[in-house]
Queue: 2 jobs
Job 1
Amino acid sequence: MTTFYLGERSLKRLDGVHEDLIRVVRHAIKLSSVDFSVLEGCRTVNRQQQLLEAGATTTMKSRHLTGHAVDLGAYLCGQIHWDWPLYWQIADAMKEAADKEAIAIQWGGDWKTFPDGPHFELSWQDYPP
Ligand SMILES: [Zn+2]
């Protein structure tokens, strides 16, 4: 089995993200059967406003604003792919890593309304804003 590692750009995008979430991401990349990149960590209020206006998000209370969320992208053959089955595999790795690190996370793909496959965040309960 191939072991993947986070590239420089991915590491840079983890700047300002909560250390526990970084720990889960760093652990998950070693377990994942699919390579992934960090697409986004911290987000400014301006950017969140733009995403809201574009319909790409439904909230101004995003966990990205506080460093409690990351978006991961499945990376295959030099580009990001959006097929759900790839995100099930990434979610498996993230959940297993979170379990082993004893850190509570939520996967956006488990949300009933507006499921968000690339999105992972620390639990609101254990990590209030
Ligand atoms: Zn997100």
Job 2
Amino acid sequence: MTRYNAWSLLKQGFAGQRGWTAAWRSPEPKSRYDVVIVGGGGHGLATAYYLAKNHGVRNVALLEKGWLGGGNTGRNTTIVRSNYYYPQSAALYDFSLRLYEGLARELNYNIMLSQRGVVNVLHSRHDMEGAARWVGAMNANGIDAELLTPRQVQERVPLLDVSPRARYPVWGGFEQRRGGTARHDAVAWGYARAASALGVDIIQGCELQGFRREGNGRVTAVETSRGTIAADAFGMAVAGHSTVVAAMGGFRLPVSSYALQAFVTEPLKPVLDTVMLSFGTGMYISQSDKGGLVIGGGLDHYLSYAQRGNMPVIRHVLGAVADQLPALGRVRLARQWAGIVDVVHDSSPILGETPVPGLFINCGWGTGGFKAIPVGGWMLAHHIATGRPHDIAAPFALSRFLSGALIDEAAASGIPH
Ligand SMILES: Cc1cc2nc3c(=O)[nH]c(=O)nc-3n(C[C@H](O)[C@H](O)[C@H](O)COP(=O)(O)OP(=O)(O)OC[C@H]3O[C@@H](n4cnc5c(N)ncnc54)[C@H](O)[C@@H]3O)c2cc1C
């Protein structure tokens, strides 16, 4: 694997950029592996990487029906943070943020992590009281968070209308300074390149179409668009299509699939150096390194597998931008898109065993799983390799829907990021 550094850049510059090698291998699938992972988004790729890196399991295939990162991983608004409420979630998401903090160096790939802070704007006394509890819980869980006065909010987001006439009055805010953004494609490509270098076979254009199971129900092979592939263990990380794949295995998941939209404007000079989100409207906004304002909002209101998104949400989100940041009212929108997210009733992920022996799952990150890619991969790899859940992942087992031990993070993960 070519190491990416200043020296190789210089060398390739003098050689006319002709010596770069492909970032990952694209082999034909073999008929048998130790482990097969289905889903070439960030979570599947990170799982394959940590299987090889942490556990020495290198005879691994990663199957992706389209192209790497073509699902939600390449469609999200790139926000990373760990500002959740319950201790179980704090442990999970902060583990992830800490992995992100060292990821560029570990993968030798610039994931463009920018810890520019995530500022939540609060619009009522109730928002303020809720935020005080939230900040207290985060601090008790050992995670950085601070309450902001309206003046501090304005300093962080100068474009925000904090005047007494504002349609959404600003009572204050709270911030996690270690939060921010990372480049989503780079996270997928970085994990793919590092996994491939450790021996993982990355197979794009390979759709899972069914499971082969033996008499005791254990899955022994997968039927794919490129033939039958056997393995000792299987992992699925297919986000918005989790229920579809589960149905192939003959079981149901407490997951609903919705479209979630995002938008980007024409490029502007730097105008926003943090991530801002508003509890009043569910709108959130940041500025990419290319200058475009990256904007997101709430879920579409009905279940769907169509990666388009509908008009009422577009009007609501863009109206909120114009109301709250009036100086942006005449900025032109460049693109709009959607991804299909897997929403669970308690807004927490599902990690670990499925009812099918030999098949393990990572799903249910809903609108907020980009930030969790490192931890999601780490946890699924741990369970597959050791046969037991990692302590951090144990509370997020599917069995919590039988025991009732739900971890309700709707407030932290519901709409804005
Ligand atoms: C508009 C939008 C904004 C978002 N913003 C944020 C944000 O700011 N911060 C944040 O933390 N999260 C955000 N998210 C959520 C985040 O993107 C997802 O939770 C995360 O990317 C899920 O990663 P994944 O690897 O599980 O799934 P995906 O990236 O969706 O990958 C799953 C892969 O499985 C493949 N697949 C499906 N079925 C099959 C099959 N039968 N055979 C083979 N392959 C199959 C798909 O093609 C896909 O590539 C956002 C999501 C969207 C849509």
